[in-house]
Amino acid sequence: MAKTNNLTESQEDYLEAIYHISQKKGAARAKDIAIRLDVRPSSVTGALRNLGTMKLINYTPYDLITLTDKGHTKAKEIVRRHQALRHFLVHVLGIEEQKADTAACRMEHAVPKDIIERLIQYDRFVTTCPKGCFTWKSGSGFTCRPDCNDPDCPHRTDS
Fold first, then answer.
1. Is pLDDT at 134 greater than 60 in this prediction?
2. Per-residue DSSP letter, 28
3. Do the Cβ atoms of 143 and 134 come closer than 8 Å?
4. What pLDDT digit, counting tens, does each position of 58-94 carry?
5. What residue ranges do the domains of the chain occupy?
6. Calpha distance 47→11 (Å, rounded)
7. What's the pLDDT tens digit per position in 25-51?
8. How far is Cα 139 from Cα 101, in angstroms, rounded to an integer?
9. Terminus of the chain with fewer CB atoms < 10 Å: N or C?
10. Any bridge partners for residue 141, and if so which?
11. How far is CA 35 from the centre of its chain?
């Protein structure tokens, strides 16, 4: 599977966990990460060393773990992919929230960035197009079909 960056799925999961824990607590501890990811503390230590070597986190054994600027950027990208996929699954496809969250977690590692961006555009369009009369137009994104005759459609063009 192609990656959107050079991180493994596991490394992405660690960055995402550190991001969420840091949002709540200001910084993460190895114990917090182990609990969140349901892994052994020894696994966390190895992953933290690798992420530290990659300059994605500030890591010193037995100390607080924080994201570097580079790590924060990567983590936000991972979280954004997860949220976009989850939102699409729940609000467009009607998938139950817990199931959608689990699926989004798996999908976020494999779905290319351009496809996620298209899903986000589709989601926005679907939620604002009153009759659902839209199509994808290469170069301009989702647009109303030529046969859209709803005068209240915010996407309609009278050309």
1. yes
2. B
3. yes
4. 999 999 999 999 999 999 999 999 998 998 888 777 8
5. 9-75, 129-159
6. 7
7. 999 999 999 999 999 998 999 999 999
8. 31
9. C
10. 137
11. 21
